Amino acid sequence: MPDQIDHNKVVVLTGAGISAESGLQTFRDMNGLWNAYSIDEVATPDAWERNPRLVLEFYNERRKKAVAALPNDAHKAIAALEEKYEVRVITQNVDDLHERAGSTKVIHVHGELVKARSTADPSLVYEIGGKEINLGDVCDKGSQLRPHIVWFGEEIHNHELSIDHIRTAGKVLVVGTSLTVYPAAGMVTEAHQQAEKILLSLDIEQRPYGFHCMQGKAVDLVPTIVRRWMEAGAAT
C-alpha cells in the first residue's frame, strides 16, 4: 500500500551548494582546504588508523571555518517554512547553518562538525561547538574522541528515517546537490508521485523523474520558492 501523502509536510534535502554560498568550500573545489589534503588521508577509517593527528588537524580547521560562516538567505528561507508547514531538513552538510538559521528539525546524514564521538562507543556523542578535538581527548569510557562525521566507507546516519519523511511529504525541495553522492542521492527517488518536487542547483548533473529542475544560486531561488509556498499556505 502506498504511503499516505501529507500536504502540510515539506522535506528539504540540502547539499554542499547551499553551504558554499555561505563561503564554505566543498571537496570538489579546486582551491581551499580540501585542495591541501587527499580524501584518503583525512576522510576514511583507514586514514584515522594511520594518522589520527592529521585527521584531527583537518577537521579542526573545517570546524573553525564552519563556525565562522553565517547562514545565508536560502538557509533563512527554509527555516521560515516552519511558520506554515511541518518541515524536515535532511542535509548532507556537516555544518550547523540550518540550525543557526532557525530550522528546528534537521537530520544530518553525514554527521556534524560541532559534535565529537567516542571511538569505542558510537552512542557516546558530545556537543563541542567550535572547540578542537586533540589526541588525548577522551570519552567517559576513556577512549579517544573522533569527529562525529561519516567518513567514506561508513554508513550514513538516519537513512531509513530520512526515506520515511521523503515518502510522505507533500513537497520535496532539493537544494545545492548534484545528486551524485549515494546513498543520500537515491533518497529523492522515494518521493511520492503526487508530491510537488523541485530541484535547485548551480550544477544539475542528474534530473530525477518528476522533479522540476531550476539552475541558479540557492540564495536567489530558494526564497522565491518559499515565498510562493508561504502565500499558498498548507493545502487543505
Task: Summarize the structure in words.
This protein has 236 residues and is an alpha/beta fold. The chain folds into 2 domains: 1-24 and 71-110 and 156-236, 3-Layer(aba) Sandwich (Rossmann fold); 29-68 and 114-149, 2-Layer Sandwich (SIR2/SIRT2 'Small Domain'). It is 30% helix and 22% strand. It contains 8 helices and 9 strands. The protein has helices spanning 16-20, 39-42, 45-50, 52-68, 73-80, 97-101, 159-168, 218-232, and strands at 6-14, 86-91, 106-108, 111-118, 125-127, 145-149, 169-175, 196-201, 212-215. The strands form 2 sheets. It has a 6-stranded parallel sheet, with helices on both faces. Strands 5-4-6 form a 3-stranded antiparallel sheet, covered by helices on one side. Helix 6 (97-101) links the parallel strand 2 (86-91) and strand 3 (106-108). The longest helix is centred in the first third of the chain and has 17 residues, at 52-68.
In short:
By secondary structure, the chain is α/β, with parallel strands linked by helices. It folds into 2 domains: 1-24 and 71-110 and 156-236, 3-Layer(aba) Sandwich (Rossmann fold), CATH 3.40.50.1220; 29-68 and 114-149, SIR2/SIRT2 'Small Domain', CATH 3.30.1600.
Work out the count of structural domains: 2
Number of helical runs? 8
Structural class determined from secondary elements: alpha/beta
Name of the CATH homologous superfamily of the largest domain = TPP-binding domain
What's the CATH C level of the largest domain?
Answer: Alpha Beta
Low confidence ranges: none
